[in-house]
Amino acid sequence: MKARTSKRLIAMALLALIAASAMAQDRVSKIRERLLNRDMSTVIVAAHRGDWRNFPENSLEALESAIEMGVDIVELDVQRTKDGKLILMHDDRLNRTTNGGGVIADTTWAYISTLRLKNGCDITTKHKVPTLEDALLLAKGRVMLNLDKADRYFDEIYPLLQQTGTTKQVIMKGGRRAEAVQKEFGQYLSEVVYMPIVNLDEDGAEQRIETFVEKLQPAAFELIYAQVDNPLPLKIGKTLQGRSLIWYNTLWDTLCGGHDDDAALHDMSNGYDYVIDKLGARIIQTDRPQFLLNYLRGRGLHD
């Protein structure tokens, strides 16, 4: 009797694990579907370097916290060591974010793996420098990943995505022209989502967007502008509707015409309201993911 009960409990636990895994996979599929379908009914939230206010930036703990928070995308930065190991770190040097030092490209993984990450207060923590593979396995089926700076090494990164089964949950962005993107990354674009980055303050920005739409039909554009009197952001928000989603970074003021996270803290109408309702953003990358999620849920714009 006890043996049958034990087997039944084990079977139930296995079914629960399978169901949880399926739900996670389904969540990633839904986020990707919203991107590819240019869904305007909700706003997708991207956490910049993970939940770095509570854990060291680009750490596995910052990634895990952002996932548990309910964000849709986590932005992570990729660097490569002297011996070819792909790791998570924003800077090309170790000095700011670890208790070590030196240029990453001139340093071996054997040394970097011994280091500890620092938090935002410059205090050394117990957390270690993760590899890109670590992050892919942790995020698999749970959240989309924007791999920043990854276009430099993408021929090396893509086999790792295949190996970990994460090719369809990665977003790559860059400032290359449409023709260069087709030539360099065309073989990956049936699975990996590519988003062009366009600075709207630069001459020819509108034509660059039109060229990308014509040649690659990108699911979304990351747009940047600092000049508050620039009329193009308002215009582009309308002309791209139904063609591509718009991603804005609200990390600081010069990325979004002053309508950043700090503006939202003081006056929501000049912050997230403006970015969504005036600029047409349906993807927002933030340094305050929980704050943004709470706001969006209050408006019915996020699950």
Report on the architecture of this protein.
- This protein is of the alpha/beta class.
- The protein contains eleven helices and eleven strands.
- The longest helix is centred in the first third of the chain and has 35 residues, at 2-36.
- The radius of gyration is 20 Å and the shape is globular.
Summarize the structure.
With 303 residues, this protein is an alpha/beta fold. The chain is 40% helix and 18% strand. It has helices at 2-36, 60-69, 109-112, 132-139, 154-164, 178-185, 205-216, 232-239, 261-266, 272-278, 289-299; strands spanning 44-48, 73-80, 86-88, 116-118, 124-128, 144-148, 170-174, 193-199, 220-224, 245-249, 283-286.
Largest sheet: 8 strands, parallel, barrel
Head-to-tail CA distance between termini: 44 Å
The number of helices is 11
Helical content class? 25-40%
Q: In terms of per-residue confidence, which ranges show pLDDT below 50 for 5 or more consecutive residues?
A: 15-22
Strand runs, count: 11
Judged by helices, strands and strand pairing, the structural class is alpha/beta
Oligomer: single chain
- In angstroms, what is the radius of gyration? 20 Å
